[in-house]
Amino acid sequence: MRLERDALIAVFEQLLAHFGPLHWWPGDGRFEIMVGAVLTQNTAWTNVEKAIASLRAADVMELAAMRATAPDALAEMIRPAGYFNVKQRRLRNLLDWLHAQGGHDALLDWPTPRLRDGLLSVNGVGRETADDIVLYAYDRPVFVIDAYTRRLFSRFGWIGGDEDYDQLRLGIEAALGHDVALFNEYHAQIVYLGKDYCRTRPRCGACPLAGLCPFPDIGG
Questions:
Q1: Looking at the 3D structure of the chain, how many domains does it have?
Q2: Residue 195: inside a domain, yes or no?
Q3: pLDDT of amino acid 27
Q4: To the nearest 10°, the Cα dihedral for 48, 163, 3, 37?
Q5: What is the C-alpha separation between 52 and 38, in angstroms, rounded?
Q6: Is 22 inside any structural domain?
Q7: 36-54 tens-digit pLDDT
Q8: Which of 137, 142, 178, 208 is the most exposed place for a label (fewest CB within 10 A)?
Q9: Global pTM value
Q10: Which residue segment(s) compose the domain that 127 sits in?
């Protein structure tokens, strides 16, 4: 694994020049960001937006109201996000945990390791979901690792692609320094790149990183 700040920043700056600031994460407030982090598991964000719109329309985008919603009704509201029965249970686990801590604002003063470990103790909240919440809902300097990040950095030859999640996360954090704003924007830029260009079958010819990336132009 070879992660150097200058190379990472060069990629970031080229992405930023292409996409512009993305103001990620799309969500109205801390609680909605947390809900969205669970709903986006294994689905496209466009589907999550539909589920969030349904929750807003039902006036349950608030901890107490959502906890009071019947499981079947909540599952139906989030149906557009896919795996809605599974996600309903995972979401309810998070809601119950937040309630037990005194609400999401009660976590504001928690040190980052305690906050991350607490979220990871919730059944259905994995490391990527937890880090989405830690970074975007609580503004902590934790870099989110997703499939797009692994694919991009593998194609640049910086990683093997099979590194342990936290090994890769800590390596990126060490290279970039603990910069919340940079982590926030960098992850968003990678998501947009992975969604539109750096796909499983890449669109290398149109990619904004074509001048930097050593990956062969097999995508057309």
A1: 1
A2: no
A3: 82
A4: 20
A5: 11
A6: no
A7: 999 999 998 999 999 999 9
A8: 178
A9: 0.94
A10: 1-7+28-179
